[in-house]
Design goal:
Largest interface: A-B, 12 and 16 residues
Helix content of chain B: 25-40%
Mean pLDDT of chain A: 89
Largest sheet of chain B: 8 strands, mixed
Largest sheet of chain A: 3 strands, antiparallel
Oligomer: heterodimer
Number of helices of chain B: 8
Order of helices and strands of chain B: EEHEEEHEEHEEEEEEHEEHHHEH
Structural class of chain A: alpha+beta
Order of helices and strands of chain A: EEEHHH
Helix content of chain A: 25-40%
CATH architecture of the largest domain in chain B: 3-Layer(aba) Sandwich
Number of domains of chain A: 1
Mean pLDDT of chain B: 92
Shape of chain B: globular
Strand content of chain A: 15-25%
Distance between the termini of chain A: 18 Å
Strand order of the largest sheet of chain A: 1-2-3
Low-confidence stretches of chain A: none
């Protein structure tokens, strides 16, 4: 059970920069600036312009990062809920 | 408006109108030597009677202009000069779109700017004015204007607002540089000080930001310096800016560049002499 699928705008990371390990992201839609800690930026990158559920995200991130399998899906679901509340991802 | 003054402060042109003669006469004296704007003014401030008949009965100044705060309380006429100053601040804070506005004092040396920012009462006003009399060029004590295109800092050398005991630090200055003593303002006793001639003459010359300091004053504080990283700097400066949100992506890009390129430190100090020494020491170390 991988939960709901989400998607982010293809250009969601167009105005983003990393400062000291945190990602500062300007969201052109809302005009808000978000400060994101890992793995939120990696999740956005995985969902930019292509929908996916937690399993898909793990697979996409896992291609480049060493993601621990234990509890990863649960943690990911919590991060996705936060990103949805912030308006950075939505359900397709 | 019956009485009017046009005033150029750095890149911003103001028009200040008043129903009373006195605030304008005081402003004219305080801002003696400032250039008059060549073209149209950016902002208008109007000092009006709270209600028409009160102009005579109990004169009370309402601050009006291009941008107003609906719940701003009127000030007694004796504080008319303060009302004009507050009006200019208000127009900048609410209406400025050409620059990223940072609530900070700024001084310059060798074409490089030092920014002093932090909470009210941290000493940025006093410190920037003090440095302005000790070998630095005073750029402003209230707002620093960051150019959205090239990231340089533009001066905004308004009269310095010295609160309570701070005026004593400037006792040796020429008397004609001071405005009247304003008692009983929301911030206590205030006296304005006109920046020196060098600061006024160079008001059109921007400088490259080189160091950002967050001073903190406390009588019992031990002198201390703490580095402020780029991420913390970004967060603190969004709070120190009145128009960051309104500028959208241009504000984001400008602030990002400033935070990436400019080292920042927090300093604690217990006396203004200690603060000046700390500033000089950090400035030398960063050269």
């Amino acid at each position: 059970m991988a939960g709901s699928a989400y998607i982010a705008d293809a250009d969601i990371l167009a105005a983003a920069a990393e400062l000291e390990g945190l990602t500062f992201l300007y969201d052109a839609r809302s005009g808000q600036t978000h400060i994101l800690a890992p793995p939120a930026p990696q999740i956005l990158e995985a969902l930019a312009g292509r929908a996916g559920d937690a399993e898909d995200i793990l697979q996409r991130i896992g291609d480049r990062f060493d993601v621990p399998a234990e509890g990863a899906a649960h943690a990911l679901a919590a991060r996705l809920a936060e990103l949805e509340a912030a308006g950075l991802v939505r359900r397709p | 408006m019956r009485h009017q003054l046009r005033l150029q402060v750095g890149p911003v042109a103001f028009r200040i109108g008043s129903e009373w003669a006195r605030p304008i006469a005081q402003l004219r004296r305080l801002y003696a030597g400032y250039p008059e704007p060549e073209g149209a003014c950016d902002f208008t401030v109007r000092l009006e009677a709270e209600t028409p008949w009160w102009r005579f009965v109990r004169p009370s100044v309402a601050i009006r202009g291009d941008y107003v705060l609906p719940d701003a309380a009127p000030l007694p006429l004796v504080l008319g000069l303060l009302a004009a100053e507050m009006g200019m601040n208000l127009q900048m804070a609410l209406g400025q779109r050409r620059f990223l506005l940072l609530h900070a004092g700024a001084v310059e040396r060798d074409g490089r700017a030092l920014l002093l920012t932090g909470e009210s009462g941290a000493g940025k006003s006093t410190l920037s004015a003090l440095l302005g009399e000790r070998g630095w060029r005073f750029m402003g004590d209230e707002f620093a204007l960051l150019d959205l295109d090239d990231g340089r800092l533009h001066p905004f050398p308004r009269a310095v607002s010295l609160k309570n005991e701070a005026a004593e630090l400037f006792a040796g200055m020429a008397p004609d540089r001071f405005g009247p003593v304003l008692e009983g303002t929301p911030k206590g006793r205030i006296r304005h000080l006109r920046p020196n001639a060098a600061a006024i003459a160079a008001m059109a010359e921007p400088a490259v930001p080189a160091l950002i300091l967050f001073p903190r004053f406390g009588a019992g504080l031990a002198a201390a310096v703490r580095p402020v990283g780029a991420a913390e700097l970004f967060m603190r400066l969004t709070q120190a800016s009145t128009n960051y949100v309104a500028l959208g992506p241009r504000g984001f890009d400008s602030l990002l560049r400033l935070c990436r390129d400019t080292p920042a430190k927090a300093i604690d100090y217990a006396s203004s002499e200690e603060a000046v020494a700390l500033v000089e020491q950090l400035w030398e170390a960063g050269r």
